[in-house]
Amino acid sequence: MGDIYISEVKSKAKQALSGRLGVAICALLLLQIVGNIGNYINRYFSTMYSVMHPVKVESNPKTFEDVMKMYSDMLQQGYQTPAWLWAVMIICSLIAMPMIVGCAKLFIGLTRGRDMELSVIFEPYKNAPKIVGLNLYVGILVLLQTFLFIIPGIIAVYRYALVKYIVAEDEDISITDAVKMSKELMRGHKFKLFTLELSFIGWFILSLFSCGILWIAYVNPYYNAAMAEFYNEVSGKTFEIKEDPMADDSDNTWGDGGNLY
């Protein structure tokens, strides 16, 4: 496996989306809706509560203690998320976990020149218990290392960043083996992934100015394609995508370190 060049990864990601952007947008939009239904409901109730029950606080605070008391009053009088809604948000997050792996599988396929169907994102639900367990296991590992210090926690996030792609490719792999493989693949590549993510800062800012439209229509698919291509690079499964996505791919074969021609 040679050096990984960010510009090459992003170029291949753009190629992967050529003629296939629609399915990528639909997959990520569906994931966002499923994973955030609870949050959307919570925001609705919070907004309605704020309109019907305006918070009364002391005006013109003069000291630091007055400012802290004002914020304390706002929290006490403000909207409190009910327990049932917390449960809904947690359940939605759990339901979305297999779909996250499904989206990883879809983008792996796109970056390898395949025409993917939207139904691919639902395939991991047959292994939902293992995927949920894997996410909880990784979350605990990251949390424990974050308790040590914030920097080890951040490093842990990058150490296990490829778990979803590994599981997307091999549904029979065990939880511990997937974690070990991600750890091994990311050895010496954590900063490279950080650099890749940092290169999208400009796109993220532009997305804010477009009220999220640019994020949905292009940046999010582009970002996810780049992450999948990064996985291809570190795992040694790099591909050359044909310019014509409709071209016959009957002679396209691949393997570890192979090329798709």
Ordered list of secondary-structure elements with their pairings:
Elements: H1 6-17, H2 21-52, H3 64-77, H4 83-111, H5 128-148, H6 150-159, H7 163-169, H8 175-185, H9 190-198, H10 201-209, H11 213-234
Helix pairs in contact: 1-11, 2-4, 2-11, 4-5, 4-7, 4-11, 5-6, 10-11
In a few lines, what is going on in this structure?
This protein is an all-alpha fold. Helix content is 67%, strand content 0%.
Taking pLDDT < 50 over at least 5 consecutive residues as the criterion, the unreliable ranges are: 244-261
End-to-end separation: 18 Å
Alpha-carbon Rg, integer: 22 Å
Query: Outline, from the CA principal axes?
Result: globular
Task: Name the beta content range.
Answer: under 5%
Quickly list its features.
disordered C terminus; mainly alpha; 261 residues
